[in-house]
Amino acid sequence: MPSSRSSMLAAIGAAVVGVSLAACGGVTSAGPSAAPAAAVQYAAAPGEAAPGAAKVSANSASQDDIAAALKAAGVSSPKRWAAEVVEYRPYSNDDSDLAKLRQNLAKYNPGQRTVDMIVSTLQP
To answer: What is the C-alpha to C-alpha distance for residues 74 and 72, in angstroms, rounded to an integer?
Structure first.
């Protein structure tokens, strides 16, 4: 599982960089990158997946696949949040910000950062 471990380390590294940049007053972002995840040098903006991270479908991905994506993104309690994503299906294909999901997740008071991390791993 070296690639799985590398992916996890890259995700943790990206999160650390993001927190560090946010603490300094700025976060930079860019579009999709062909660079390997380990070479990430900037963090994604809220609601945007980390470069190199594949988004999963909130409508059609299995609960396990959603949980794996959330775990890779550093979301705590990924299985719980994946269950919530599945529970509130379907999501409109023209709602790229997943406003319905955001509204439903807010019921559990997870914090804006957690909601942003969850949504950043998903696409309608």
So the answer is: 5
Q: Is the peptide bond before 90 cis (omega within 30 degrees of 0)?
A: yes
Element (H, E) at 102: helix 99-106
Both tokens assigned to 56:
């999963």
- Tokens encoding 115: 């909601």
Closest C-alpha to 66, from 9, 120, 5, 11: 120
Can you give the residue ranges of every domain in the chain?
1-45, 54-124
pLDDT tens per residue, range 19-40: 444 444 444 444 444 433 333 3
Question: 122 near 66, Cβ under 8 Å?
Answer: yes
Q: pTM for this one?
A: 0.59
Strands annotated E in 21-89: 56-57
